[in-house]
Design a protein that fits this description.
12 helices, 294 residues, alpha/beta, Rossmann fold, 45% helix, 8-stranded mixed beta sheet, elongated
Length: 294
């Protein structure tokens, strides 16, 4: 669907313009008074000849925003706009605002629609694209464990040296597994004595009994996060590079759609367990949370 807004003095003026743009198939979607005139939104069921999947999704998102705002209280429309501006897709944003409308609590709305699980499994593997921050997260997690072993499947020399130096300095066991086929047997023995943290080059070979966590940079677009989730199957999500992104709405939305629990939040110098309050504050900004809930 194509969507276009017209800022005119009267609806009749908008109708004439819309028919010129869309033909007789122009559909009136909404009208809103705007000072001395009005904002009138029309749409057409026909897509633009060169429309891409991304542009169609954006148009659908815009249409959902218009339909949502048509019959809501101002503070709810404002919250919806804040969520979508922060990268949340319109479906998740609508669910959150609907919950707020019924219960009046933004915190409960996030808790209901966004899974959070920071528990560390006895054997955990980090997967995800290059540059996501897997190795850095591994070292931060290991630093908090009394007895841990870092296992790497990454054949790159730089990655191995970084982990080996960290392990030696921290008194943590380190193992480089050359043959992924032997990983399951090695883990079975190691897990009896220590927490096992597995660093990968991207994906994890089939290995039962391992909790897989997907590492996703906060600055990724929704489409990129969606593609990453499909490429690297996982049970949980760790969001990294928080200091390089204004929000994490896209990561939260896509995790919710995929049923992934968000476990950890990481920046260049910190790593901590995710909480509902953290997600709200990072997504909306602390100065806007109270206003959004009012």
């Amino acid at each position: 669907m194509r969507i276009k807004s017209y800022f005119v003095r009267s609806v009749d003026d908008a109708i004439a313009l819309a028919r010129a743009d869309f033909g007789e198939d122009a559909l009136l979607l909404s009208t809103r008074n705007n000072g001395d005139g009005a904002e009138v939104v029309f749409g057409s069921a026909e897509s633009e000849p060169a429309a891409t999947l991304d542009s169609i999704r954006a148009q659908i998102q815009e249409l959902r925003q218009l339909l949502f705002a048509a019959d809501r209280e101002p503070h709810l429309s404002r919250l919806f706009a804040q969520l979508t501006n922060a990268g949340f897709d319109s479906l998740i944003a609508t669910k959150i605002v609907d919950f707020v409308e019924k219960s009046g609590t933004l915190r409960d709305a996030f808790a209901e629609h966004v899974k959070i699980d920071a528990a560390l499994a006895n054997v955990t593997a980090l997967v995800g694209p290059p540059g996501a921050g897997k190795t850095a997260v591994i070292t931060k997690i290991a630093a908090f464990q009394k007895s841990a072993r870092i296992v790497t499947l990454d054949a790159s020399l730089a990655g191995r040296i970084e982990l080996q130096l960290f392990a030696r300095k921290s008194g943590i066991q380190f193992t480089a597994v050359e043959n992924p086929g032997k990983l399951a047997g090695f883990i079975e023995e190691a897990r009896k004595k220590e927490i096992v943290l597995i660093d990968t080059a991207g994906a994890l070979p089939d290995c039962p009994g391992v909790c897989t966590q997907l590492v996703v940079p906060a600055y990724m677009s929704a489409d990129a996060v969606r593609h990453t989730i499909s490429k690297y199957p996982a049970e949980k999500m760790i969001v990294t590079h928080l200091d390089e992104s204004p929000s994490i709405g896209a990561a939260i939305s896509e995790a919710a759609h995929a049923g992934l629990a968000i476990s950890l939040l990481a920046s260049a110098n910190s790593l901590h367990a995710a909480t509902v309050d953290d997600l709200i504050s990072i997504a909306l900004g602390p100065e806007r949370v109270q206003a959004a809930s009012a």
